[in-house]
Amino acid sequence: MDTPRPAPRTTAVLADDERLMRDQLRARLAEVWPELEIVAEAKNGLEAVQLADAHRPDIVFLDIRMPGLTGVDAARQIAQLPPREGDDDDPPLPEIVFITAYDQYAVEAFEQGVVDYVLKPAERERLQLTVQRVQQRLAARQAGAEPATPGRPLQQLLHQLSAQLNPGKAATYLRWIQATVGQTIQMIPVEDVLFFVSDEKYTRVQTAQVEALIRKPIKELVDELDPQLFWQIHRSTLVAVNAIAGVTRDFRGRQIVSVKGHPEKLEVSRSYTGLFKGM
After folding, report:
1. For position 57, what pLDDT does the model report?
2. pLDDT tens for each residue of 167-182
3. Where are any strands of DSSP class E within the chain?
4. CATH second-level architecture of 176-276?
5. What SS3 class is residue 165?
6. Closest C-alpha among 248, 240, 252, 279 to residue 265
């Protein structure tokens, strides 16, 4: 008789600069989700990124306001962590749950289904709702289903939250790409770019006429390009929204983006399939 395989554990990292708040949230989580294993706790955003990289948890609870690196900035870095050696080259992103003492952040952005939130102090009823939604998303992921809610691209949502946290800081985005084409350096207008694709050393910049190389990784470009104009569809790929001709599925069920004016097909990773819900 076969021995039943143990259910996979669900792990989390908890980040808040206030120890009492970490203790209170941990105690509430033990009540509403006793099976959840909190593998590490962070006192600031930088620690949260380091611990998320070390443990690769299923969920990261992030205080939205922390010294040094805010929870939003930490989430942006966590979303760009590269796969570890030996891992699947397309690992899913962790679920992000923001912790906030301010009702002003419990806005439409959190209802997109990409991230969730907990208000301080964590109340059992509201935390139970958050837990249920996170559990549903994790279950769908394990079943190979697409996200139930398409939402907006994660980088758009995080840019919006960052703007709310820093209302006096106007966003500035790249207008030109300084890239190597053969033996020359060219200045390429951002509006001419169809997509960016990275490998280990370089990022390819593709326009309708030119293929060029830069040393800037995708994780930096995500923060420097207007998220209304460029969508991340894979850890290694950004595509201009206006250049998307259509989305199809290949024989393995993966979503494939066709690009206007170029024959290349771009794969959409599992973490970003919700962008094209219904395909």
Report:
1. 95
2. 666 568 899 999 988 8
3. 11-15, 37-42, 59-63, 95-100, 115-119, 176-181, 184-189, 193-198, 203-207, 211-214, 230-234, 237-240, 244-249, 255-259, 262-267
4. Beta Barrel (2.40)
5. helix
6. 248
- If one counts every other C-beta atom within 10 angstroms of the C-beta of residue 186, the result is 15
Q: What is the pLDDT of residues 137-176, one digit of tens each?
A: 888 777 766 554 444 567 777 777 777 776 666 568 899 9
Q: Which residue matches tokens 């998303």? A: 137
More confident position, 137 or 17: 17
What 20-28 contacts at long range (C-beta under 8 Å, 24+ apart), as own/partner pairs, is 21/63, 21/99, 21/120, 21/121, 24/121, 24/122, 25/61, 25/99, 25/118, 25/122, 25/127, 28/122, 28/123, 28/124, 28/127
pLDDT bucket at 230, cuts 50 / 70 / 90: very high
Structural domain boundaries in the chain: 11-165, 176-276
| CATH value of 11-165 in 3.60.15.10, 3.40.50.2300, 3.40.190.10, 3.90.1580.10 | 3.40.50.2300
pLDDT of amino acid 124: 87
Neighbour count for residue 244 (Cβ, 10 Å): 19
At residue 160, the pLDDT reads: 74
Q: How far apart are CA 77 and CA 131, in angstroms?
A: 23
- The DSSP secondary structure of 58-85, one letter per residue, reads SEEEEESS-SSS-HHHHHHHHTTPPPPT
